Amino acid sequence: MDPLQITAYTTISAAGDGKEALQSALLEGKGGLQPNDFGHAPLDTWIGRVADLENRPLDEGDRQFECRNNRLAFMALQQDGFLTAVESLKSRVDPTRIGLFLGTSTSGILSTEQAYLELGKSGRWPAGYHFKGSHDLFSATQFVRMKLGLKGPAFSISTACSSSAKVFCDAHRFISTGLCDAAIAGGVDSLCLTTLFGFNSLELVSGQPCRPFDQNRDGISIGEAAGFMVLEKNSSTDSGVALLGYGESSDAYHISTPRPDGAGARLAMEQALNRAGLTVDEIDYINLHGTATPSNDRAEANSINRLFPSSTPCSSTKGWTGHTLGAAGITESIIACLAIEAGFIPGTLSTQSPDPTLGLNIQRATTTEPVTRVLSNSFGFGGSNCSLLFGRISC
Amino acid sequence: MLSFYLEAPAVAAPGLDGWTKAKPVLAQETAYRQTHLPKYVPKILPPTAQRRGSISTLLATQAAQESLGATEIAPRELASIFASSIGDPEIVDRLCSALADPQPMVSPIQFHNSVHNAPAGYWSIAIDSLESTSSLAAGDASFAAGFLSAAVQCRAESRSLLLVAYDLPFAAPMDTTCPLSAPFATSMVVTPSATRQTQLHCTLEINAISAPASRMADAELEQLRVGNPAARALPLLRQLASPTDEETLTFDYLPDCQLQLKCKPC
């Protein structure tokens, strides 16, 4: 496929506000997880919480979109000179030909959770609660489209933890069919009780910071994040990094348990390699989905072992950010771009002893070295798999 | 401009209980009567999903199953896109009620069925297919966005897709915050070239707003169309039921653009 140049991006997560902070955290081994203090009955777990969101209301004129999820999206828009980059994009590309595709798993459901609490106490919906601007899955996409002054096609993808990876596939398709000349792909998911207690009900939440691919791994740490990326064809801006390939597949196995043989995940990775015209030997690093649940990490290892040489460096960066669910795809795509631009392979924070039965070359510590091509995996409930391939365009 | 073909339409809604019964109603040969929606338990789902599947999964799968029976394309060759504004209203209510408890406890099955792509996940299990599925939302324009996305993927990857759109109303107390009129699901197969089952050849464009959205002549069907994001498909279903020579349909999409669809019978 024709590569799409990445001409700007921005990120926010517990690991840092903006890409420089995220890169420093990765290089210095300083993660953002903290003991859970979220909600009225906090579970005994660790979370990746973005500081101070509670004190950052949206602008007066944006009240119809007020919710934690849109606050997080807006914080991300304000990092990394992204708003300026989008203004520059709009001077090059007709805004009616800039697509906006955002992933989210739970959107602003926290607002409905809080509204139910209030309804139980007072018998009335709280003042200012509005479903369409908060909980509705399209809310963040509408909000971001308005803030950025975009006029092109837009929708939200919600496929659980692959959501903001699959948006890159849509961005490429809208550009390759000629409907768009550029696209902004991204996603946002914020802390809520639905995911904390939901994953806990499935016994998938760890009592300590998550330890991906560790032999003692025992579950995820839930995080929140937002990120956005500008993708362009034929851009005169030479950033050097591009989306080279994508792959999407299904597990056809179970709604909340990954297919043990990893056949679905493997198909997504094979498609990404085929679209990029690359072989497994040309991949310098795999950013794993690596949630730290026993079943995810084993299934992912099975899928990679049947495709890649055992020497391919792999790591999961969820020890820094937590599992940011619908925002994991964009967050880890940004980590892939940082790794290529700055030349480093992230480690696997908190993992002490990689599980020898999984057979992957798990990088425990971050190392600095040239990186030209990175595969990023995102897998979600419903058996939804997506693999993205990023690399230097000149290679 | 995107060029593609449509076949295997399906519908599951009050008074539109399957394509065979709905077709004369949509073609205005018989009157529309809004009846109670049957309790669908699609046989294509595995037994556990038939028992445990959420109301949204059962409704979406009912329509998808009907499309599958009307196309000659093998199930495993079809990628799929599921479009829904809300997803599953019953699960939202149950989860949020449970989470308002001083000691919150949620059902693991309800939580895993709460993901927007649960119907897509059950579909891939039902047809045992590793092909890609996606699940999207765009508020009242969820059908338009799903239809556009399916047409784009069909052209970009030269492949056939199943498009399913569904939405169900909230019960109290959420019904006041997000009112929907009635449940509705529809499904169709989008193909890059004509097949023996092709019913319409379509060309689709995104344009600046220049015309009101296409409507239904029958007042009750029109009420259904505006009352449920998935039912915004009704003018296209009418065209599939009773194709005129050449018709241009308009679908509301975003505040500054709309979809224009030219359809020709094949």
Index terms:
heterodimer; A: 395 residues; alpha/beta; Peroxisomal Thiolase, Chain A, domain 1; three-stranded mixed beta sheet; 17 strands; B: 266 residues; alpha+beta; nine-stranded mixed beta sheet; 9 helices; 9 strands; 33% helix; globular
State the shape of chain B. globular
Number of helices of chain B: 9
**The CATH superfamily title of chain A:** Thiolase/Chalcone synthase
Low-confidence segments of chain A:
none
Output mean pLDDT of chain B.
Answer: 97
Runs of chain B with pLDDT <50, length 5+?
none
| Cα gyration radius of chain B (Å) | 18 Å
Biggest interface, which chains? A-B, 68 and 65 residues
Fraction of residues in H or I helices of chain B: 25-40%
The end-to-end span of chain A amounts to 15 Å
Output the CATH topology of chain A.
Answer: Peroxisomal Thiolase, Chain A, domain 1
Describe the largest sheet of chain B: 9 strands, mixed
Rg over C-alpha atoms of chain A, rounded to the nearest angstrom: 19 Å
How many strand segments of chain A?
Answer: 17
How far apart are the termini of chain B?
A: 19 Å
Instruction: Give the amount of beta strand of chain A, in percent.
Output: 15-25%
What structural category characterises the helix and strand content of chain B?
alpha+beta
Question: How do the strands and helices of this protein lay out in sequence?
Answer:
The complex is a heterodimer of chains A (395) and B (266).
Chain A: E1 4-13, E2 16-17, H1 19-28, E3 34-35, E4 46-48, H2 68-77, H3 82-92, E5 98-103, H4 109-122, H5 139-148, E6 154-157, H6 163-176, E7 182-189, H7 193-201, E8 222-223, E9 225-232, E10 241-250, H8 263-276, E11 285-287, H9 294-305, E12 313-315, H10 318-321, H11 328-342, E13 344-345, E14 361-362, E15 367-368, E16 373-380, E17 384-392
Parallel strand pairs in A: 4-8, 5-6, 5-7, 11-12, 11-16, 12-14
Antiparallel strand pairs in A: 1-2, 1-9, 1-10, 3-4, 7-9, 10-17, 13-15, 16-17
Chain B: E1 2-13, E2 16-17, H1 19-26, H2 47-52, H3 55-70, E3 79-83, H4 89-99, H5 108-113, H6 118-126, E4 133-137, H7 142-156, E5 161-167, E6 184-191, E7 200-207, H8 219-227, H9 234-241, E8 247-254, E9 257-265
Helix pairs in contact in B: 1-9, 3-6
